[in-house]
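Database export, one record per block. Field names are fixed; values are copied verbatim from the stored entry.
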Amino acid sequence: MPATSLTLTDSPLTLNWASPYGLQPISPLWLRERTQDPAQLDVLTCQRLFDSHRIDPDLTLTGARSLSETRIEFTFSDGHVEVYDLEALALELEGDGSFPNPIPWDSRIDQSAQRFDWNQMGDNDAFHKALKAYLQRGYIILTGVPTDPERILEVGRHFGYVKETNFGRYFEVYSRPAGNDLAYRSVALGPHTDNPYRSPVPGIQMLHCLVNETTGGLSTLVDSLKVLELLKIEHPQGFELLRTTPVGYRFIDAGTELTARRCMIRTDADGEPVGVHYSPRLDRLPHLSPEDTQLFHLTRQRLGELFADPDFEIRFQLNAGELMFFDNNRVLHGRTAFDTQEGRRHLQGCYLDSDGPRERFATTLINARDQAGERTYTHQTEEYNG
């Protein structure tokens, strides 16, 4: 966003943002809290060195002096005087441009563009590209991952922070008749997200193939963001019910019981869809009026149909040495049935907290900036995300 999107008007003195919805005045409180004064910010963390909650609620702007096209010295009614970089303010108003935006996809996605060599993940540029692909499309496939036990934990630590659950730091996925989850059987698994009964829900899942001697057991992935675009058009009222009505989820085994209530459609702070909590074997219809219960069920039913639609699904064989890394709250995964008589099929799974890849992505930007020396962080960000 150009700094010229910020303009000054008089009576009273006001800084304004030319937003897509028209000219919007910026509160002096908002501006004062966004201090760029080095004396009021910690050098390392950029955390404020004063309590902004104590700012005078009647704060006003009493003066403004232009120093350049992008720099203005503001004087506040509490006596504070500071020079502001308008480009930095404009960037925050537009949104954080450092991270790539999600790109919804369907069965036509170029799957080859989502595959990355694990042995290259120590290189900053290669790691950055893999993280970018993940943040945009919600999944990547790593190749060349050694198949020795617990290697999945090393991969997890490289991309973020391993989340331990009642299944352990990692879990084994192979056919066992008495397993405490259907994933441990050889039956087909429809598209679903894991652990909606847990709080917080695991943000990322990894599945690492150690052995696959079967012709079945194809891995499936579906992007909920693409499906939700169509569902909202087809069933706008039902979409709102799934977006705003909490659903109960429950998990029970011999030694554990976990329950949680959350909406099937996940939204961000602005109410925009960012994913789903979807597990038809674990959810329970909410108590609503008979009419709303029917609408909820019909919409939920249609959502399941779309998730199973080949137009939205990709299928592939996960071979030994390959690792599937996906956003558990956005991308649904499943599996076709397989015949245990054909041979062994052994995967290891692991969960990560969701913030790891974003943190690592920011680190790759910082590393690239440091490597470039004189080049600025803003320029580097634009180059990487442009």
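Remark 1: The two ends are 14 Å apart (CA to CA).
Remark 2: Confidence is low (pLDDT under 50) at residues 176-184, 374-386.
End of record.
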